[in-house]
Write a structure and sequence with these properties.
Length: about 525
């Protein structure tokens, strides 16, 4: 569906629209114009001079394609759009306040495309009651702004929606939002586009009991997606005992190319089968995963700050090629595992991926993980060829900074993984690495440095929690070269790097493939 550009409507365009909507270049206005058909709301009544608007008490039904300007206040009524299958309608909201106590405030019964155009500088409000009287067996409409067909919301005005019954905005086809400012408070979902949601340059402030934004088509692989090009998103989901409460959710895919996101959700902040992120700034706090993809999660750019989560990033196939990612989590920071998880109102139901497979590929970016569980957990193979990865792993036993079931190969980049020693695992690959198991526990604030015999410092790390083991890989770690480890500026031990993986010290740690580590040369 093409984007509908919002410009000043010319009278010739109005004539074309009223003649049946054959023009291929429909345009909607966001400013008041004498050529628009006027619908005036007067408390408990509605007036319009056009025979294309049928008024029955406090309900106005638009019966033909065209552009209609709605203003005034309606105490308990409805604006309906019921036109031909190929007709397009534009509703310009210009200081309109509409409340319907037992149904949708705006209800698109039938149309090709309906555009809700917010007049420049206008403030508009839609609201409903907490119980609906339904018109059909499908229990529809079921949102304050509801459309059976394609719905576009555009313009430089503001739309406020107070949805006491359930969803705030719902389209059973495609939903597109451009430029508009929309404030939503919903007792169920915030914004729902069954086939798709597309957002560009909009400001969305959403508080919802259930999912804030979602696309739900599960019968067509080319639908059920969300595409976000740009915009500002402030999202809060509070959760309920009856439904999930995710920030942004799609059945098939979510693609985000830019925007600013502040999401505080009781479930996953972002969730879909496949997720692609190529830009944007994210502040995420979630009751479950920060970002969860059932299949592929591909992050190429952006600044992602997950301040609170059960797990930070989770996907069956997790790929990171760029961006800045900071993760704080109660369990695993990065979890490459196949399958889907289950979360109820009482919390996450165990580790749903313990016997699954997964892959992790990191080729770029700057990643910092602060995990109470495993820092990086891969139920399969991991490959690192670039980027900088710092893992502040668990301070207590039972988890490790690194945990994998297959191989963990490093061919480039920088990796520092620090945690407990009982579950510590070393790594392999063409780039040299060292695992240093300490004889005692060191506390937060301790500083570890690795210095070559020539005096070059190749690693400097300051702990943020207790630790007993360090895994380090970097191109500066050279074969057959001697290095000294300093802790809090005191010499701790020396070692000579071997080709591949070197282990220093004994512990209950694991070598690549899950083999028990062998002792190294402590002082």
């Amino acid at each position: 569906m093409k984007k509908i550009t919002t410009i000043l409507l010319l009278s010739v365009l109005f004539i074309s629209a009223c003649s049946g909507g054959d023009s291929e270049e429909k345009e909607a206005t966001t400013t008041s114009s004498g050529d628009n058909i006027s619908i005036v709301l007067n408390g408990d009544s509605i007036t319009s001079d056009s025979d294309q608007v049928t008024v029955d008490g406090s309900t106005a039904t638009i019966t033909a394609a065209g552009t209609y300007e709605v203003s005034g206040e309606l105490d308990d009524g409805q604006i309906r759009v019921d036109v031909g299958d190929n007709d397009e309608v534009t509703l310009i909201l210009n200081g309109a306040t509409i409340h319907n106590e037992d149904s949708a405030a705006i209800y698109v019964v039938n149309a090709d495309t309906t555009t809700i155009s917010l007049a420049e500088g206008s403030n508009n409000t839609l609201s409903d009651g907490n119980e609906y009287t339904f018109e059909n067996v499908d229990e529809e409409p079921d949102a304050t702004l509801f459309s059976h067909d394609d719905l576009v919301i555009s313009g430089s005005g503001t739309l406020n929606i107070n949805a006491a019954y359930g969803d705030a905005i719902a389209s059973k086809d495609d939903l597109e939002i451009y430029d508009a400012t929309i404030n939503v408070d919903a007792n169920d979902d915030g914004i729902r586009g069954k086939d798709s949601i597309t957002v560009e340059n909009a400001t969305l402030n959403i508080t919802a009991v259930a999912d804030a934004m979602k696309s739900t088509n599960d019968s067509d692989t080319e639908k059920g997606y969300i595409l976000i090009e740009s915009g500002t998103f402030t999202i809060t989901t509070t959760g309920s005992t009856e439904s999930s409460s995710k920030g942004i959710k799609a059945y098939t895919s979510i693609t985000i190319n830019g925007g600013t996101f502040d999401i505080n959700s009781s479930d996953d902040s972002i969730h879909a089968a496949d997720i692609t992120i190529t830009g944007g700034e994210y502040m995420l706090a979630s009751g479950d995963d920060g970002i969860h993809a059932d299949n592929i999660l591909d992050i190429g750019a952006g600044t992602i700050n997950i301040t609170d989560s059960y797990e930070g990033l989770e996907a069956a196939d997790l790929r990171i090629s760029g961006g800045t990612i900071d993760i704080v989590c109660k369990d695993d920071g990065i979890n490459a595992a196949g399958g889907t998880d289950t979360t109820t109102a009482s919390g996450r139901q165990g580790d749903m991926f313990s016997t699954s497979s997964g892959t992790l590929t990191i080729s770029g970016g700057t990643i910092t993980v602060d995990a109470e569980g495993d820092g990086i957990d891969v139920n399969g193979d991991a490959t690192i060829s670039g980027g900088t990865i710092i893992v502040h792993g668990p301070a207590s036993g039972g988890n490790g900074a690194l945990d994998y079931d297959g191989t963990f190969e490093v061919t480039g980049g920088t990796l520092v993984a620090v945690g407990t020693s009982d579950m510590a695992m070393s790594i392999s690959g063409s780039q040299n690495s060292v695992m240093i198991n300490l004889t005692s526990t060191y506390t937060a604030g301790s500083k570890v440095r690795i210095v070559s015999a020539d005096g070059d410092e190749i690693m400097s790390y300051t702990a943020i929690k207790n630790f007993q083991s360090i895994v380090f890989s970097d191109e500066q770690l050279k074969t057959n070269t001697s290095y000294t480890v300093y802790i809090d500026d005191e010499e701790y031990t020396t070692f000579t790097a071997s080709s591949g993986s070197t282990q220093v010290g004994t512990s209950g740690g694991m070598m690549p493939g899950g083999d028990q580590g062998q002792g190294g040369g402590f002082r």
